[in-house]
Structure formats: structure tokens, C-alpha cells
Amino acid sequence: MERKKTPRQGKGRFSWRHIFKIDLILAAVICLTLIAGVSGFFRSKDSVQNRFTVGNNKSVIEEEYGNYQSLKNGEKYTKKVCVKNTGKVPCYVRVLAKVTNPDTERALSIDYDQTNWISSGDYYYYKQAIKPGASTTALFTTLPPKKDISDFKMICYEETVQSEGSNDPITAFDKVKGN
After folding, report:
1. For residue 135, which of 144, 126, 125, 148 has the smallest C-alpha distance?
2. Is the pLDDT of residue 102 over 80?
3. Residues 6 or more apart whose Cβ sits within 8 Å of residue 125
4. Cβ(85)–Cβ(135) below 8 Å
5. What is the pTM of this model?
6. Are the beta carbons of 146 and 103 closer than 8 angstroms?
7. Sheet containing 91-99: which strands, arranged edge to edge?
8. Which pLDDT tens digit goes with each residue over 49-89?
9. Which one of 59, 71, 103, 109 is most buried, by most CB atoms within 10 A?
10. Number of neighbours of residue 173 by Cβ within 10 angstroms
């Protein structure tokens, strides 16, 4: 008696119907896995408290000077200009020290400290960052006139910027908008 071969018997061949069922089952498993993963992603919640503070750089200009309306040739007049960091972060300092009358400015030989300060444009930049509570060295200390000056007026103005993120004061101030 001879046996009849069925389509399932033979050398490992499957029918198209059987392959279709396996593919359908695999597709369903993949879809369910993706749906579970995506829904888990959208349902998960994490909370993080972002703690940051804005730096508080405050400073005051400290001046020591007399009330000089006129200056006489051959005499030295004291005028010390320093900046104190009264804030909570280290900062760079720049000072605008300008004699209001250009003729008067030419008649003075101001002793600018070129060791600790650098001149760039209209400003003098203190080379080091000033720690909270510390002060700069004096930008200058005396005003010796080369000739008699009858009308003396000088403006001293200071600005600070946080030192973090910069290696020198000029770069730090260049990062600030408007400069």
C-alpha cells in the first residue's frame, strides 16, 4: 500500500497559507510591542527642579579727592579712583575717567597705573577679576598739572560684568550687548 503525500509533508516546504499566517502573527506581535512602548513613553512623567540664580554683580566707585576748582603748576593734587565689588560674584571692572575740557586734559600728566589697568578705547580695564568684597588698585593717585588750570572737572564712571566665562576683561565686556 502506497501512502499519498500531503502538501505538508516533503522537504520542508510550507504552503503560502501557512507562511501568511506566520507573517500575520509576527506583524501583530511587532505592532503590539510598538504600541506598548510608545504609550509607555507618552505616559511616563519625570519632574526636575531647575535651580539657578542670576548673578548679582554690584559695585561702587571709591574716590579720594579734594574739591579742586583750579590747579596750580608744580603742585600735586590727590585723586584716587578705585572700584569695590559689593556684589556676590567675581566681576571685571572698567572705568571711564575723562576730563571734561580737552585743553585741561592736555595740561595734566595723570599717573595712570599701567601695571594693573589696561587702556582700550575710552575705558580703563582692570586686568584681574575682583572677588566679592575686594577693591581694585587705584587707577591713578595724583593730578600734577603742567600749567595753571582754572576750570577743572573730571568724570569718573565705572561698570562691571561677571567674570565667569571670560579670561580677560575686554572680552567679557565685548560679550555684553551694546558694546
Report:
1. 126
2. yes
3. 92, 93, 94, 117, 118, 119, 169, 170, 173
4. yes
5. 0.68
6. no
7. 117-120, 123-126, 91-99, 154-162
8. 777 666 678 999 999 887 777 888 888 888 899 999 999 99
9. 71
10. 21
Q: Could you report the per-residue pLDDT of 141-171, keeping only the tens digit for each? A: 988 898 998 888 889 999 999 998 889 999 9
Q: What residues contact residue 174 under an 8 Å CB cut-off, 6+ apart?
A: none
Q: Do 79 and 140 meet the contact criterion of CB atoms below 8 Å apart?
A: yes
H helices present in the chain, as ranges: 16-43, 102-106, 169-175
State the Cα–Cα distance between residues 71 and 124, nearest whole angstrom: 24
Count of C-beta atoms within a 10 Å radius of residue 112? 14
Nearest CA-CA partner of 59 in 178, 177, 162: 162
Cα angle, residue 102 at apex, residues 149 and 76 outer, rounded to 5°: 35
Distance CA 80, CA 87 (A): 22
Nearest Cα to 68, choosing from 125, 135, 143? 143
